[in-house]
Amino acid sequence: MRLFTAVLATETNTFSPICIDRRAFEASLYAPPGQHPATPTLCSAPLTVGRQVMREWGWELIEGTAAWADPAGLVNRQTFETLRDEILDQLKAALPVNGVVLGLHGAMVADGYEDPEGDLLARIRELVGPDVLVCASLDPHSHLTAKRVAAADFLVAFKEFPHTDFVDRAEDLWRIAIDTLEGRVKPVMSVFDCKMIDVFPTSREPMRSFVDRLLEIEETDPDILSLSVIHGFMAGDVAEMGTKILAVTNDRPDKGSHLARELGMALFANRGTFMAPQMDEKSAVTQALANKTGPVVIADVWDNPGGGTAGDATILLQELLDNSATDAAVGTIWDPVAVQICMAAGEGAEIPLRFGAKSAPGTGNPVDGRVEVIRLVHNAQMQFGESRVPFGDAAHVRLAGIDIILNSTRAQGFDPSLFSVMGIDPASRKILVIKSTNHFHASFSKIASRILYCAAGTPYPNDPAKTDYRRAPKNIWPRVADPHGQGAS
Ligand SMILES: [Zn+2]
Question: Structural domain of residue 328, as residue ranges?
Fold first, then answer.
């Protein structure tokens, strides 16, 4: 057997001002055939797992390009078309193949393409014909369009958020692919549209139990090959946005539809209860100041570069300044120009500086003040589990007793080493402000006396009832109360 694999992934926040071109892919991950490193990034696990599985089976794996860009805004049209055509040309050269196994994210939007992954899958189907297996893995923060479902034999999404199971799901993808090619199963997809959009951390209830139930059904019911919850991505203003249940059965479409519907309505019944309660910046700072012990971690949950924002909001910093808070550290505020100015001034200099809040409305105002430049680091990096995350040239400045880290490569606050590499001892501070929705929790919970989830400003369209969508479906909760027409309940 000969199989072809490739990766094309990013997550597009269509409200983000940070547009993506080829350089952004090259800065995150761009690997020509055969050059992908041995360890996977999130969406490229089908490629690295595929290498192992194909070796074990003694089948031939033909690698195409793997490209991933960190979440941001609209993808440049030429960049998408060039990467897509690169992969299509590689596939053409590899034909005939028995199967195509892709690593996709599923929430890309490119200039002129509302559904780039659907476009790619449809072109692949056209190339290989109806009898060749086409399958892909997806991030649950994606859009499950009809075009993708029509073009692929089956799709598998990560179940966990944070996405700790991306390798497990790539293994599912390959297992089902092999079972299909050896004639043991015939995967068929059934989809249920939950007509809702929400955020579903699986580290807490009720989503924890829901995912455990999916795993149990997969394990115990031989008709069910895979169950996925497409969480949806509320910052992607596209016509098919929303939460969906995807059941892949062994040729039991009716059973799949029934189960997808049952699971989807169970999810809908719990709408609005999945996220940890959030407070505004005033309550967060008041509660942090009143806390007897430190450090209190305030997560600026919606100004998370991991969700495509710039990460330059100043609302929480301004609240700290207004309350004359000291013994606080803020990491990070993205401002490459301010970092350049600090680099020119040098460590120890005291300079007038304007920084932050330049990218978008809803992020506060730029902060002006005389800052002391404490420490400058070129190509700064923080830890994230086993890997290292760059946050670019960075400046640690002090303003009115508050330590602030300015950075030049957008990155969410994964780990307290973000502070220590800039000369700030995070454990000794009373208040730490970071920008992350959920991924920070594992590492910061080890040093925090308390964690406060703060919704400050509107850097991210986090309230779908109020977001000014142009393309997203109207008949979807919370844009309407009763999208399924169940009547009063
Ligand atoms: Zn995701």
Answer: 281-454
